[in-house]
Amino acid sequence: MSQEQVSYLELLARGAATEAYDRPVLLARASGAGPEALAALEQAKQLALRVRAELEGRRRREAELSALFETAHDLAGLRDLDAVLRAIVQRARSLLGTEVAYLSLNDPAAGDTYMRVTEGSVSARFQQLRLGMGEGLGGLVAQTARPYVTDDYFDDPRFQHTRTIDTAVGDEGLVAILGVPLTLGSQVIGVLFAADRRARVFEREQVALLGSFAAHAAVAIDTANLLAETRSALAELERANDIIREHSGVIERASEVHDRLTELVLRGGGVHDVAGAVSEVLGGTVEFAEEWTGSARLADGHALRDGDRWVAAVSAGGETFGALVLSGQPDLDPVDQRTLERAALVTSLLLLARRSAGEAEQRVRGELLDDLLDAPDRDRRLLRERAARLRTDVDAPHVVLAARIDRAGEKADADTGVRESADRQRLWSAASHLAATRHGLASARDGGTVLLLPLGPGDTAAELARQTARHLGGALHEPVTVGASSPVAAPAASPGQVSTAYEEARRCLDALLLLRRAGEGAASEDLGFLGLLLADTRDIEGFVERTIGQVVAYDRRRGTDLVRTMDAYFASGMSPARTKDDLHVHVNTVAQRIERIGRLLGPDWQSPARALEIQLALRLHAMSAAVAR
Question: Does residue 192 sit in helix, strand or coil?
Answer without folding.
Answer: strand
